[in-house]
């Protein structure tokens, strides 16, 4: 069986401790490895921003890949960073790597995807700064106090959403969907929107948070 090393990344220490984002990456990588005949011999998890080029866990993963002549597998290309120069240096390391979301990407395509990701990051940063300036001009409170107010608003909205979901959850349970995994799969199958309502799929973590809000 072919050897592989898995690399996971989340953007903040809080995400890393809570497991948000990691579960989906872990599931995607291991499912891909199983189907493609890879044996994952080691896993490395980085908790930091994709804009940083210094990543000790990634360097350790690459070193092990060279030693074991293994494939580096990640869930998505942006998990390796949204920086074209960084991607180029990574490719020059001669370590083969695959992104589960685009396993057939050639070097040119990877460069292009990285370039688009970097452009998107810069655009998001610019839009965020502009939005903050506009909010400041409107008299919106920024800083810690402003974040606390926004957090309370989001929490209230999440509670209201949970209340609307309770009849659906109750019905699923009566139909035999009692596990978090079973509920998330069925919600996705039925096309039920998540709290964000942005096309995001349900995962075990989001269902778990929903059930917690409903005290189930």
From TrEMBL:
**InterPro entries associated with the record:** Resolv_N, Resolvase-like_N_sf, SSR_resolvase
Query: Which UniProt key words apply to this protein?
Result: DNA recombination, DNA-binding
**Domain Resolvase/invertase-type recombinase catalytic span(s) in chain numbering:** 3-139
Q: Which Pfam families match?
A: Resolvase (PF00239)
Q: Can you tell which superkingdom this protein's organism belongs to?
A: Bacteria
- SUPFAM superfamilies noted in UniProt: Resolvase-like
Any one GO MF term held by the record is: DNA strand exchange activity
Q: Which PANTHER family does the record match to this protein?
A: DNA-INVERTASE FROM LAMBDOID PROPHAGE, SERINE RECOMBINASE PINE-RELATED
Tell me the protein's name. Recombinase family protein
